[in-house]
Design a protein that fits this description.
heterotrimer; A mainly alpha (about 160); B mainly alpha (about 100); C mainly alpha (about 575); A: about 160 residues; mainly alpha; Four Helix Bundle (Hemerythrin (Met), subunit A); 2 domains; B: about 100 residues; Helix Hairpins; about 0% strand; elongated
Amino acid sequence: MESIEYFLLLTGAIFCAYRATVSKRILSSTLYLACISALTSVVIFMLGATQVAVMELSVGAGLVTVLMVYALSVVGEDALDPTSVIPKPLALGLVGTVTILLGWMVYPAIQVTIVSGDVDLASVLWQSRVLDVWIQIVLIFSGVMGVLGLLSERTPGHSEEVHA
Amino acid sequence: MNFSPLNIILIGIAGLLGVGFYGLLITRNLIKVVMMLQILIKAVVLALVFAGKISGNLGLGQSTAATVIVADTIVAVVGLALAVQVRRRFGTLDVPQISTLKG
Amino acid sequence: MAGNLILLIIGIPWLGALVVWVIGDQRAKAQHILAVIFSLLSGIASLILLAFVDSQPAVNFTLGSAFGNLTFVPDGLAVTLTVIATVIGSLAVLFSVDYMRGEAQLGRYYFMVLFFIGAMAGLVLSGNLLFTFFFWEITAFCSYGLISFYSDDPKAVAGGIKALIITQVGGVGLLAGTLIAYANLDSFQISDVLANASVIPAAALSFMAFSFIIAAAAKSAQFPFHTWLPDAMEAPTPISALIHAATMVNAGIYLLARFYPAFASVPGWRTAVIIVGVISALITAFMALTATDLKRALAYSTVSQLGYMVYAIGAGGVLASQFHLLSHAVFKALLFLTAGSVIHAVGTRDMRRMGALSAKMPFARNVFIIGALALMGLPILNGFWSKELILEVGLEHSPRWAYILMLIGAGLTAFYTFRMTWMVFFGTQREELHVHETGTAMKVSLALLSIGTFTTWSFFGGLNKLFSASLPFHAMEEESTLEMVKAISFAPATWIALLVIALGLILFFTLGRKVALTESPRWLNSLTESSFGFESVNHFVVNTVSKFSESLRVTQTGQLNWNILGIIGALFIVLAVLLWGGA
């Protein structure tokens, strides 16, 4: 029964990802991206990782989507996607091979029975992975700098002229 | 091969990764490049939680996934900021047109 | 103490390189002064290091199993070469103060020179083969940067590229040998290689030995790689004196001398070394006979003299080769720097346009003649003792044909050296040239070098003592200077050699003088211009490498999508290798 739920959710996510990739309009790609985020966060929730699911939903489907839409409104809708420079069969073949290889190699590793016996996220995060927390704080500050870059209206000065 | 939940999730992760890679290869728009990175990261977050689940240490998987989410959001923000600045400077988002790294 | 000194010897020039570069080209005077100070300090430190010669590493950093320990061993061989590099280096820098006055981009020039001096000291002091290789590559890079210093001159750029590519062939040889040693001994330490050479399987050892011959031949411009050195003469003259006569080209000789105990027993190795030395010494002597460019003629004679050193090592005379290396470094630096002051004064390198300069440049004439006499090997200058020592070793330990060929080479040396001196300073004045006398800083370094030419042979005893005390694998007998002088004075080899040299001179004055000064025979000209046919071989190597790197340009599209394709392709390869290896 669980299998079917996972199957539906993940099929939906992959379908959205595919639509996001091939869609000609960037705005609809953004909405598909938000859908992927929502669907994966449900899967994560079902796996029992409730906190991360909430984070993924709020950040992935919320914050990032807002930023995307904002960036699109700044650059305007000229953002059509022209035909790719790489032949599509080549891209498809390479990616297909790599993905299948990857799945093939991981497959034996997951044929285990799940051991229960869970450690609380809070205790892991604040005790054994406390270094990560500090790094995240630094990262968030650099993210704020990035937002400034996104919002800044300053056009590049003559001193920063690049050789186009 | 049976259709247990674990196998299905594995296939799902691989599928998301594949679509993300494919998108990175064919897209020529800088903002879409950032989006494709987002798809890849979704697959990775899912994989981390999944790995935590099957090794019986979901807390560790979750905490790593949380770090990845933070890092990836920063990547999105900086990537979008770059794209906006590139658009202002070059007047286009088309990747081949802004390539100045030609050897 | 010794450890700190070694770090100072390498560190001071490198620090100086940064400082001179950072203070900027608008303060040219400060750059000159600082460069001289930093190089002199390094020279002084290396002279003090002479008191701390030891066979054990003085510096030892643990760098984990992948790189082995970074050690610096101040043994006799290393310290002698360090002293040569830093002392002649500081004299060349001193000379540059006059020579490079008013040139643009002094910062780049001094940066490269000082960076080179530090790297050369590191190359010989390093006890770890991997780091020897790193320093070896740094010296190649600096040599390239300085040959192509006048980067708007296409000949200079071409000469630099040629030198870089050919010495890289040597670098590949050195790296291959190093990795063979590591694969068999699990250690990069030179002392381990020397101690356990017999443990290495015979095939691997002989592969290593012969790839080191390639490395040495390419670095020291020996046959068949001897064509890059003459083209390297586009560099500023102090550089030709420092890098392409006195120091960097000695790195190959150093390598052979260092590993002689390990390779001597490899079948065919000594014969191969002797053959390389003999051929290099002879054919470049012929090329020097017809050269009309003063610096090229000196470059040919450098290759020829390096050939003598290689020959000496092949004959088993490690000490003799290093003794000649010391003499050669001093008198050839003197010759080059004097040539530099002459070229600086008259504004041309073509010897056919010079002539009768002796009245106008008496100081330059005097020191050039001192250097020339030492190059010919006339008593009592340092070149005499060391060359006789090599010939004596050759008479005893090398095949008779090799000895006879080297004797002929000595006669040729006398001939072309005299021709060179005559064309520049004597004879008739061929062209009205505006001449000014040598500058003061030039005079100081030339005077010091000519004093060295008279005296360095007396260091033989000390050199021998240093070597026998600190090189446990080379098994040397101790011999004092006095014993050496006695032995050489009464050896038949000496008298034979002197006779041949005199014959060369007589030949020059009787039939050769007119021929040599006007026009060489055409068949000899065409033969020497193509380096006896090896020019085309070297040309082919350089062209192939250039073309190959040019074709790699296609891979740098600068396009994001193709770069990502590359990344995913690499992921595929990694996965495939893992799957294949794991299955």
